[in-house]
């Protein structure tokens, strides 16, 4: 059983963590390049948020938004 867990340890340390090891070494040389994945995710989230807000405004301007407080029973008490 011990060999099984040591095999999992070897797999993660020597195979699956190769990209993380590369990014750790890259961070010492260029912080912005090492955080490229984070920048991409921030851009995607910003674009999605702007799109969502524009859609909310579009529906509100067309009076398609249903704002009846009785839609939820806990709000009527």
Automatic annotation (TrEMBL):
Gene Ontology molecular function: glycosyltransferase activity
TM region positions: 31-53
Domain of life of the source: Bacteria
Keyword terms of this UniProt record: Glycosyltransferase, Membrane, Transferase, Transmembrane, Transmembrane helix
The protein's name in its UniProt record: Uracil phosphoribosyltransferase
């Amino acid at each position: 059983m011990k060999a099984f867990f040591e095999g999992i340890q070897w797999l993660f340390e020597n195979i699956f963590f190769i990209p993380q090891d590369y990014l750790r070494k890259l961070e010492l040389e260029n912080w912005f390049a090492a955080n490229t994945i984070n920048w991409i995710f921030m851009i995607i989230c910003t674009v999605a948020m702007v799109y969502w807000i524009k859609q909310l405004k579009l529906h509100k301007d067309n009076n398609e938004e249903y704002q009846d407080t009785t839609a939820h029973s806990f709000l009527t008490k």
